[in-house]
């Protein structure tokens, strides 16, 4: 099994790197949370070192070797824990991990179903299964310093989601934006668009 790869990046895709090692190029798939930090990991000449998860994707007429890359062993350990959840294979986990692992781990520990079901390919039922399987087992992963998503960016995601919902509910954009801005200015601990919308609802019906 290939557990580590070091070489020069010769091609970069949206979700993979082609890494040349001794004249041979290996395709390494990466979760978005890892891909977004690659620039901070490679050196000035494009050389990089990654920890890998190596498995064989079995298809009807062939078995395809697949490499998935991570910046360190702790990230790979989280990935291996994540795929122990029923119905989540390596490919599904690869797609789902588009947020910092530390943030996902915290959501699991908090039982934050709304956040988990927002991950690509993870619906309501799968989010519940993730919490049931992993809650209380992922604390150390919350210590990973991978939170490239700043608080301001996170708030922007929440407000944009809430704005889209309010517009669907026939509120004028200017009115919806005003309600959102008022709540965001006064309440600092909102984590999801659903919490933001609930707070807007409570305030509206207190008038």
The main sheet orders its strands as: 1-2-3-5-4
Radius of gyration: 20 Å
- Principal-axes geometry comes out as elongated
Main sheet properties: 5 strands, mixed, barrel
What amount of the residues lies in strands? 15-25%
Mean pLDDT: 90
Helix fraction bin: 40-55%
CATH architecture of the largest domain: Orthogonal Bundle
Low-confidence stretches: none
Number of helical regions: 9
Can you tell me the number of structural domains? 3
According to CATH, what is the class of the largest domain? Mainly Alpha
CATH topology of the largest domain: DNA polymerase, domain 1
Note the topology.
Elements: E1 4-12, E2 16-21, E3 24-29, H1 32-35, E4 47-59, E5 62-70, H2 73-82, H3 90-96, H4 101-110, H5 113-117, H6 124-134, H7 151-168, H8 173-186, H9 193-204
Parallel strand pairs: 3-5
Antiparallel strand pairs: 1-2, 1-4, 2-3, 4-5
Written account of the structure:
The protein is an alpha+beta fold. Helices cover 44% and strands 21% of the residues. The protein has 9 helices and 5 strands. The chain has helices at residues 32-35, 73-82, 90-96, 101-110, 113-117, 124-134, 151-168, 173-186, 193-204; strands at residues 4-12, 16-21, 24-29, 47-59, 62-70. A 5-stranded mixed β-barrel has the order 1-2-3-5-4. α7 runs antiparallel to α8, α7 packs across α9 (193-204) and α8 packs across α9 (193-204). It starts with a strand and ends with a helix.
Provide a quick synopsis of the model.
The chain has 207 residues and is α+β, with helices and mostly antiparallel strands.
State the main characteristics.
elongated, 207 residues, 3 domains, 44% helix, alpha+beta, DNA polymerase, domain 1
């Amino acid at each position: 099994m290939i557990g580590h790869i070091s070489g020069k990046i010769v091609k970069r895709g949206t979700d993979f790197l082609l890494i040349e090692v001794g004249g041979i190029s290996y395709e390494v798939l990466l979760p978005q949370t890892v891909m977004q930090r690659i620039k901070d990991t490679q050196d000035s000449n494009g050389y990089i070192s990654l920890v890998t998860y190596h498995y064989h994707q079995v298809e009807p007429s062939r078995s395809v070797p697949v490499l998935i890359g991570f910046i360190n062993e702790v990230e790979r350990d989280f990935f291996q824990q994540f795929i122990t959840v029923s119905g989540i294979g390596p490919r599904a986990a690869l797609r789902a991990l588009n947020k910092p692992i530390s943030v996902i781990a915290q959501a699991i520990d908090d039982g934050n179903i709304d956040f988990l079901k927002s991950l690509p390919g993870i619906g309501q039922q799968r989010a519940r299964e993730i919490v049931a399987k992993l809650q209380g087992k992922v604390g150390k992963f919350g210590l990973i310093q991978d939170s490239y998503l700043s608080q301001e960016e996170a708030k922007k995601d929440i407000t944009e989601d809430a704005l889209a919902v309010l517009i669907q509910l026939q509120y004028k954009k200017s009115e919806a934006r005003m309600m959102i801005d008022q709540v965001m200015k006064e309440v600092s601990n909102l984590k999801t668009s659903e919490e933001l919308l609930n707070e807007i609802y409570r305030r509206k019906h207190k008038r």
